[in-house]
Design goal:
The complex is a heterodimer of chains A (about 325) and B (about 325). Chain A has one domain. In chain A, helix 6 crosses helix 8. With about 325 residues, chain A is an alpha+beta fold. In chain A, the strands form two sheets. Chain A has a six-stranded antiparallel beta sheet with strand order 1-2-3-4-6-5, with helices on both faces. A six-stranded antiparallel beta sheet of chain A has the order 7-8-9-10-12-11. Chain A has ten helices and twelve strands. Helices cover about 35% and strands about 30% of the residues of chain B. Chain B starts with a helix and ends with a helix. In chain B, a hairpin with a 4-residue loop joins strand 11 and strand 12. In chain B, the strands form three sheets. Chain B has a six-stranded antiparallel beta sheet, with helices on both faces. In chain B, strands 7-8-9-10-12-11 form a six-stranded antiparallel beta sheet. In chain B, strands 13-14 form a two-stranded antiparallel ribbon. With about 325 residues, chain B is of the alpha+beta class. Chain B contains nine helices and 14 strands. Classes of the chains: A alpha+beta (about 325), B alpha+beta (about 325). At the A-B interface, helix 5 and helix 7 of A face helix 5, strand 9, strand 10 and strand 12 of B.
């Protein structure tokens, strides 16, 4: 691990990541480096119960510019049977997003992914979120879906670490943009592009207390009639998004929402709420473009097969095994 | 004694056992020294003739100030109360200034703001520095300050309505919402509001009474947000430059707040907070006019259409350093 030559921002990120993963008794193991037009490095995350990998590569947009940017992707493969059950439910399952989106590929496989582009302003925040996403993202997401299907009531194991003082500080920090109202257990930011809600009231079935973050906009305002292309939106963001993606889009009646859940362990990360809100603002401002791209992917029809396979190849995900026969309910499989 | 403001302040100060110095007063604490000085000045016009500048400043010393770098100063300035933070050769300072006119119409308010700044600048400044260390320290300092977290009497909505109407009558787009009034000042072009044209180059000004300060409790918060922010790498330098330029001015609106860095470290915002738990009728209008004059100064001195803040070569070099 120490022998790998890494560009400075990547090295700094990996060191921070190791630090945060060490805090939850996990570690990463370097598995591969590919040199080509885009150099990329792949690490495996040990001890998380799923095949979790972290892939870092130079962004397409920065190639040849002399000012390389590096994108970090967290990809957790869901095993074949679970994946098959979840495939058609991706749009629904994403209401349980924690720190990544569940994405369905056209070959019936499913992965949970998060991504961001390394910038000197977000390194520490994103390293902490990456560690949490890699260590717990898939497990907590799947467990939440399982409990929902089984009808289990969430257990209140711990209260949220976020309190009224935190929301009051956020309100002060965002006072110049207006529209921010803090309460004892949450905060609402109303923008021209949508609404951002932060709530300490809603426990996650896996983690218990934490901070639920919802960035929502009306479907009508985004030009969507009928079912929203949420899976394609998540794929778009994951593939080329320039806003850090730690969560996923889902459809909620006549609204689209991007949901993230920050477990209590992330409470001490410096400026976390401000970054999360800043990303949500940017995401809502770009939502129309994301929807347009998602619609384009959906309308590609057969070509979507090629896109999907290209996406997987970019991720270094092994080809999926052929689906086996027999239908099982998601609850049985998860 | 050259003004009613100075007379009121001196009358009040003379009741307290503080050290007198030739042009004012001084108090020494363990980690800080505070001054209140009346510096003779001239300028203004016939109607508003400048006679002096009341300057409240505190120099922070010792360990408490040692770890504050330029980036941290810019963040401290986003929460400025009773003055701007600045680094000088001899240490870390907070400084507030109030230009005093021979015929100051609101002399009681001016005296009250000067006395308030001198009474609390060092205490709130120390708490602000310590609060940067950790969330726990912030909570302890917040409790220690014991500032009121709710208004004894809520500011009247009609006052805000009145302010907005006054501004709209003068061609400045202004809106109100519960406990706040906002206005847009055109920096370039002809579009007058970002609500109508998202590309309008307007500064967004706000005076709010529903946003408590993390340490100082309730009061009047005023902000100026720009439509184009400088690159984040030069934000601390811009914050320092603008604060220094304001403090070097003579005939200018009160310098009770500061230009600082907000958001995810990528926005240059002016913030001014006046702690107060009883509303003062008309104060939101006065503060809004201060913000408008400040924005016009910024526009006329530093703003370039479609580019944002620019400086002449000397200042540019300072910013790059």
């Amino acid at each position: 691990m120490n022998d790998i030559e890494l560009p400075e921002p990547v090295f700094e990120f990996v060191e921070l990541l190791k630090h945060y993963l060490g805090g939850v008794e996990r570690r990463i193991e370097f598995v591969d480096r590919e040199d080509g037009a885009q150099t990329r490095w792949v690490w495996r995350v040990d001890g998380v119960g799923h095949e979790a990998r972290i892939l870092i590569h130079e962004t397409q947009a920065s190639l040849g510019t002399g000012r390389p940017e590096y994108r970090v992707r967290i990809a957790v493969d869901i095993d074949e049977e679970q994946g098959r059950a979840l495939h058609s439910l991706a749009a629904f399952a994403n209401r349980f997003c924690v720190l990544g989106a569940l994405m369905a590929y056209t070959d019936q496989t499913v992965a949970i992914g998060s991504q961001f582009v390394i910038g000197y302003d977000n390194l520490q925040t994103c390293a902490a979120l990456t560690a949490a996403a890699a260590a717990y993202g898939a497990m907590s997401h799947l467990e939440s879906i399982r409990r929902s299907f089984l009808g289990e009531k969430p257990q209140v194991g711990s209260l949220s670490a976020w309190s009224g003082i935190d929301f009051e500080r956020l309100q002060y920090e965002l006072a110049h943009i207006g529209g921010c109202r803090a309460g004892e257990r949450g905060c609402r930011i109303e923008l021209m592009t949508g609404v951002i809600d932060l709530s300490a009231l809603h426990s996650n079935p896996y983690f218990g207390g934490g901070l639920l973050v919802l960035a929502g906009a009306a479907k009508a305002g985004l030009g969507i009639e009928g079912a929203a292309p949420v899976n394609e939106m998540n794929l778009c963001e994951w593939l080329v998004g320039d806003v850090p993606m730690f969560g996923g889009w889902y459809e909620d009646g006549d609204h689209l929402r991007f949901v993230s859940f920050l477990p209590n362990m992330l409470k001490e990360v410096d400026q976390l709420m401000v970054h999360i809100v800043s990303w949500a603002q940017r995401r809502l401002a770009q939502a129309s473009d994301t929807v347009a791209s998602a619609m384009a992917i959906r309308s590609m029809g057969g070509d979507a097969e090629q896109l999907s396979s290209g996406l997987k190849s970019a991720l270094n995900i092994a080809p999926a095994a052929q689906p086996r026969g027999g239908d099982m309910s998601p609850a049985e499989l998860i | 004694m050259s003004s009613k403001v100075e007379a009121i302040v001196r009358e009040h100060m003379d009741q307290h056992p503080v050290e007198r110095i030739p042009d004012g007063y001084r108090i020494k604490y363990d980690n800080a020294t505070s001054w209140l000085r009346f510096v003779p000045a001239s300028g203004g016009d016939e109607k508003f003739r400048v006679v002096s500048i009341a300057e409240v400043s505190t120099r922070f010393t010792g360990e408490v100030a040692a770890f504050i770098d330029d980036g941290a100063i810019a963040v401290l300035n986003s929460q400025a109360v009773h003055g701007a933070w600045l680094r000088q050769e001899d240490g870390l300072w907070m400084r507030a200034q109030f230009t005093i006119y021979a015929e100051e119409p609101a002399f009681m308010v001016a005296a009250q703001l000067i006395l308030g700044a001198y009474s609390y600048q060092s205490a709130i400044g120390c708490s602000a520095i310590v609060s940067m260390c950790s969330d726990q320290q912030f909570r302890e300092q917040r409790a220690f300050q014991e500032c009121p977290r709710s208004w004894r009497e809520m500011p009247a909505p009609a006052d805000f309505q009145e302010t907005a109407e006054l501004l709209n009558d003068r061609g400045i787009v202004s809106t109100i919402e519960d406990g706040r009034v906002t206005a847009e000042v055109v920096l370039s072009g002809s579009a007058t509001s970002r609500m109508r044209d998202p590309k309008a180059e307007t500064a967004l000004l706000g005076v709010k009474t529903h946003v408590p300060h993390p340490l100082a409790g309730v009061g009047y918060l005023a902000t100026i947000a720009l439509p184009i922010d400088p690159h984040r790498s030069v934000l601390p330098a811009w914050s320092a430059i603008l604060n220094e330029q304001e403090l070097a001015s003579t005939d200018f609106v009160p310098r009770l707040g500061a230009w600082g860095v907000r958001g995810a470290g990528n926005e240059l915002v002016y913030s001014q907070f006046i702690p107060m738990d009883l509303p003062m009728r008309g104060l939101q209008s006065t503060i809004m006019w201060w913000m408008i004059k400040r924005t016009i100064w910024l526009r006329d001195t530093f703003w370039a259409p479609n580019r944002g803040l620019t400086v002449d070569r000397d200042l540019q070099e300072t910013a790059q350093q």
